[in-house]
User: Which sequence fits this backbone?
């Protein structure tokens, strides 16, 4: 063990985090001010509400992190607060647009979503605090891997075994609806299963990394080709594949299915360093995708709409994607300005298509800014994975970072017609309780691992050593 | 494990790059295509988001935008509705199910000014942008005269049978070309088509489109009618240029065979032969003076004049001087249908040419063209370019453009024109004249001239009988020798078959009311 003097200890970077949080609050307030100025030509008391949310979550999370995870990455939290805050502003802005639209069409307005999102944000932050306070060392999670996996599976499969009236929304059976309260358990399952996947693969990595059949050519001492895994080791991958197919068949949930499988293949690759697993995974994915296309009408429709969004045959089915493209095109490089566009013309503007809403109003420049935030978030997650010393932490951190990145990619590719639309939420931005909660949960785990990664080895878990005083 | 983590991170970078490139494609490369797509409702919402300027007649708005609290921020309203509808047009976000944005009339023709998109607004728009004020459109001031427009509309729809008459009135200031009245009946209510209720718009539009009386048709500028005897003004002008004097005796038999030049006392059944209306005798059954035949509107004289004396070319040339067959369609700035004298055969084959000579065969003109003929004669042979927009004003009421009257061409030299003026006065005042009911006697110093027309439509009713002919009157009024107002009136099926005087009896009183109102109003 190296002895580290207090002076040589790495900086905690908590003040940098505080400064960045302040920036995040300022950006959110400026965005809300822009919305109000564009909509009403004046600023209202709402501004205080929308300033209070990022200030509140920023202060609470920051104070908690100072106490229990002082070496945590200083960028992750400000990015999450900023995205959460901007999402809230956009949801509020869409409320205003949808209300006008309802008046115009003589229909009833479904009710404002922004206040609900504020409540979800508060619950999300509470969950975050609970996680980061309760789990002082991420390695404990390894012990509960199988229990967490079981919980994840139950959550995932529960909606598919419940009657449709308790579980179906917009054709996808991925909800649990009880007493007017709806909840998407798959969002939590994805994190629980990441934890399990990381723990399982860490314990089995030596076996899984064993080479089976070799495919390739040998040039002298140089081998070009693939080491295929042994047949008997296919079990876990096949199980994951079958799970995803099950989700797809029962839940009609393309996005989650794709996300899970991608996640498992990547975890397998990182754990074993075998490209062979990726090749096998891609083949299985191709088979699964083909089967899904053959069996499910919804998949066929989505692919057809993706190929020909302007064809008259898809006048109704392609409406949403067309409106999304119109919105993005109208936004152009600089956007119409927050509050000055018509993102409410796209169905589901606050959940699946919130990126289109931003694209219309803050333009290419703004959306690339958002993508950059996610990019930095993922990079910080990956660097925590690189820096943390235990294999489980590495797998878990990279798995969680990959989840955020892949989910973002699938969503943005879907609404911009790079890929068929699959129906996932945008992390931290989209309206929706389960999505927001699970992302705060994810952030808690990632911060915990990043704290472990940067913490000097002689400092007790969750407590800065030496003369460093804990700020009140 | 760090090596695969870096590789996965690199793979994610590729994914991010892919969505970055695709966003550039969608938002920048394809951006303007998407933002202007007719299916993109934002196009329309943006148009409605700014206050559209007013269309003004003598200081009063006949089209204006009022702020609403729905998504389309401004509602277009037309306080006088049907009265000005053929001129204003409507401003609708749904015209037909296949067309998204629909405007007509001045709303279309002056859209850049009304919407504020005109490049002249650049400075004002920039100021609005900086001060955060909604951009506003400019307003358009028309040349119409409220009182004249109202009287023309009221007189035109007035009917003894109950259902309003179909027709049009156009009045011009002969010395400037300013349009003083432009009425088309039946009209429609543009407020219904400009509402914010797509269902109501579609329903109203379907009803109006299927209405056999064609309320959406702007008859004043866009409908072509056989001019009938009103065309004799043009033929007479051509004859005067060829040296025919108004008091010269010309061939005017009761029946005239254009193919052979033979004359007879009456037309045998089925023969290619021209008679006067109601088989009348013109003057003495053999010859008549040009002035007499013009006043009484004898057909045989003009048929024989066209075939024996003038030929088709001079008639067509003269018609073109008056505005027929323009090289480019006239825009005032509403588009005007091109009046025509027919095909080459109509000008060469004697049988066709004879009927061209009295405005039948394939001669077709708009009511505006009728008014232009009268205006040119009234204005000593000088035809002014008709125009409907007096001024274009910026939102701050500064003048963007002020229309200066321009001469279209000198149709006829003043001496010959004076002869034509006398002939047209004869229609109203001479004993044999057919247009007595246009005469104005109760205003000092006023003299009225004109020409009636009773034009066969060539159409038959459902029993196979010919439809009643259209009734025409074109003419003008002078006060103290100065031309003041020229007018054209057409009432569809307003005449009685075979009776020339009926055209004058139906249309001339409308013309009289219009001219009288203007003369009284403008002193």
Assistant:
């Amino acid at each position: 063990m190296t002895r580290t003097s207090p002076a040589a200890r790495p900086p905690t970077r908590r003040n940098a985090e505080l400064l960045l949080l302040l920036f995040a609050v300022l950006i959110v307030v400026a965005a809300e001010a822009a919305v109000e100025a564009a909509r009403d030509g004046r600023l209202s008391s709402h501004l205080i509400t929308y300033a209070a949310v990022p200030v509140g979550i920023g202060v609470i999370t920051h104070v908690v992190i100072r106490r229990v995870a002082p070496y945590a990455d200083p960028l992750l939290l400000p990015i999450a607060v900023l995205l959460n805050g901007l999402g809230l502003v956009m949801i509020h802005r869409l409320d205003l647009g949808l209300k006008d639209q309802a008046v115009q069409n003589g229909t009833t307005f479904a009710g404002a979503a922004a206040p609900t999102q504020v409540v979800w944000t508060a619950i999300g932050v509470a969950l975050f605090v609970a996680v980061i306070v309760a789990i002082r060392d991420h390695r404990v999670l390894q012990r509960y891997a199988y229990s967490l996996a079981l919980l994840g599976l139950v959550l995932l499969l529960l909606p598919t075994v419940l009657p449709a009236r308790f579980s179906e929304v917009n054709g996808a059976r991925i909800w649990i609806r009880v007493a007017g309260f709806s909840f998407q358990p798959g969002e939590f399952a994805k994190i629980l299963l990441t934890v399990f996947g990381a723990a399982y693969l860490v314990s089995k990595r030596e076996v899984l990394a064993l080479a089976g059949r070799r495919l390739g050519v040998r040039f002298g001492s140089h081998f070009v080709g693939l080491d295929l895994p042994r047949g008997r080791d296919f079990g876990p991958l096949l199980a994951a594949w079958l799970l995803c197919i099950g989700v797809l068949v029962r839940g009609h949930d393309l996005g989650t299915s794709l996300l899970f499988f991608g996640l498992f293949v990547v975890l397998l690759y990182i754990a074993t360093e075998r490209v062979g697993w990726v090749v096998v995974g891609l083949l299985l994915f191709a088979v699964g995708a083909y089967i899904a296309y053959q069996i499910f009408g919804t998949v066929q429709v989505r692919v057809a709409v993706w190929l020909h969004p302007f064809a008259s045959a898809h006048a109704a089915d392609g409406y949403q994607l067309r409106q999304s493209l119109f919105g993005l095109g109208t936004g152009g490089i600089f956007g119409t300005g927050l509050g000055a566009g018509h993102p409410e013309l796209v169905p589901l503007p606050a959940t699946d298509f919130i990126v289109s809403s931003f694209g219309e109003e803050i333009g290419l420049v703004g959306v690339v800014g958002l993508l950059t935030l996610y990019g930095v978030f993922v990079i910080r997650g990956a660097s925590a994975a690189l820096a943390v010393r235990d294999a489980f932490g590495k797998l878990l951190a990279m798995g969680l970072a990959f989840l955020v990145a892949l989910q973002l990619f699938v969503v943005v590719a879907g609404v911009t017609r790079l890929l068929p639309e699959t129906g996932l939420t945008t992390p931290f931005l989209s309206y929706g309780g389960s999505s927001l909660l699970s992302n705060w949960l994810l952030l808690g785990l990632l911060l915990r691992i990043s704290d472990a990664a940067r913490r000097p080895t002689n400092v007790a878990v969750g407590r800065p050593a030496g003369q460093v005083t804990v700020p009140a | 494990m760090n090596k695969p983590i870096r590789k996965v991170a690199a793979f994610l970078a590729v994914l991010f790059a892919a969505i970055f490139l695709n966003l550039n494609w969608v938002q920048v490369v394809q951006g303007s295509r998407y933002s202007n797509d007719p299916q993109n409702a934002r196009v329309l919402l943006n148009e409605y988001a700014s206050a559209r300027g007013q269309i003004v007649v003598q200081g009063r708005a006949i089209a204006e935008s009022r702020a609403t609290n729905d998504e389309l921020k401004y509602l277009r309203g037309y306080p006088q509705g049907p009265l000005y509808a053929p001129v204003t047009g409507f401003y609708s976000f749904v015209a037909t199910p296949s067309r998204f944005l629909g405007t007509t009339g001045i709303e279309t023709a002056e859209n850049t000014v009304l919407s504020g998109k005109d490049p002249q607004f650049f400075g004002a728009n920039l100021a609005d942008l900086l001060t955060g004020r909604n951009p506003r459109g400019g307003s358009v001031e028309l040349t119409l005269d409220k009182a004249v427009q109202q009287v023309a509309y009221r007189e035109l729809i007035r009917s003894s049978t109950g259902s309003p008459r179909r027709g049009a009135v156009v009045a011009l200031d002969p010395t400037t070309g300013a349009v003083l009245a432009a009425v088309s009946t039946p009209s429609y209510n543009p407020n219904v088509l400009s509402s914010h209720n797509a269902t109501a718009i579609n329903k109203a539009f379907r009803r109006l489109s299927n209405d056999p009386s064609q309320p959406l048709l702007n008859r004043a500028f866009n409908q072509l009618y056989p001019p009938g005897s009103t065309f004799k003004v043009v033929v007479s002008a051509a004859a005067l240029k060829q040296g025919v004097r108004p008091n010269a005796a010309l061939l005017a038999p009761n029946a005239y065979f254009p193919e052979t030049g033979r004359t007879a006392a009456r037309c045998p059944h089925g023969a290619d032969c021209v008679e006067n209306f109601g088989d009348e005798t013109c003057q003495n059954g053999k010859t008549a003076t040009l002035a007499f035949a013009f006043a009484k509107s004898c057909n045989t004289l003009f048929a024989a004049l066209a075939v024996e004396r003038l030929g088709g070319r001079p008639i067509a040339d003269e018609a073109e001087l008056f505005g027929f067959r323009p090289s480019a369609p006239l825009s005032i700035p509403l588009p005007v249908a091109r009046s025509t004298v027919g095909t080459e055969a109509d000008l060469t084959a004697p049988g066709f040419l004879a009927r061209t000579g009295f405005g039948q065969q394939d001669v077709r003109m708009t009511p505006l063209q009728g008014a232009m003929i009268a205006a040119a004669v009234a204005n000593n042979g000088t035809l002014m370019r008709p125009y409907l927009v007096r001024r274009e004003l910026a939102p701050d009421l500064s003048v963007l453009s002020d229309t200066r009257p321009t001469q279209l061409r000198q149709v006829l030299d003043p001496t010959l024109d004076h002869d034509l003026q006398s002939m047209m006065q004869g229609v109203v005042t001479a004993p044999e004249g057919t247009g007595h009911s246009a005469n104005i006697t109760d205003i000092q110093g006023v003299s009225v001239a004109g020409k009636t027309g009773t034009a066969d439509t060539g159409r038959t009713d459902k029993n196979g009988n010919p439809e009643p002919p259209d009734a025409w009157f074109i003419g003008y009024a002078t006060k103290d020798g100065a031309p003041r107002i020229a007018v054209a009136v057409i009432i569809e099926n307003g005449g009685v078959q075979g009776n020339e005087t009926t055209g004058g009896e139906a249309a001339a009183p409308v013309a009289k009311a219009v001219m009288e109102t203007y003369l009284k109003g403008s002193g």
